[in-house]
Amino acid sequence: MFETLPDILDSKLTKKLFDSGFIRNEIRKKNLSKLTEIFQYRSTDVIRVAECLPTYRDVLIFRKKKEVKGIVQICFTCSQYQIIGSEIDTRLFGQQGEFEHLKSLLYPD
Fold first, then answer.
1. pLDDT computed for residue 3 by the predictor
2. Which terminus of the chain, N or C, has less C-beta within 10 A?
């Protein structure tokens, strides 16, 4: 997926993703606290910048009572991402090892 997410949450986006060939995988309940820890606000002095065209192969959809509350699309190859639905500034996501932690959470060997 090369396109970026819309600026607002779209309830039809999930269906569009599945129609495009994305596969649904549930995150185990025992890993939800780890996921919450990864998506916390942190400040940092170092900013990483990627200079490639991202291919978003991973999309996380955050729900609360079946309502979509946030969406994250990630390219683990170049560490680019797009987050919508967050109430905090997400520009510094990934600066303190969050990509590596998230990848190991989503893809445990």
1. 58
2. C
Residue 14: its pLDDT value, please?
74
Show the tokens assigned to 88.
Answer: 């905090």
The residues, any chain, with a CB within 8 Å of residue 13's CB and separated by 6 or more, are 5, 6, 61, 68, 71
Per-residue pLDDT at 53: 75
Print burial letters for 62-90: b (CB count within 10 Å at least 16), e (below 16). beeeeebebbbbbbbeebbbbbbeeeeeb
Alpha carbons 74 and 76: distance in angstroms, whole number:
6
pTM for the full predicted model: 0.61
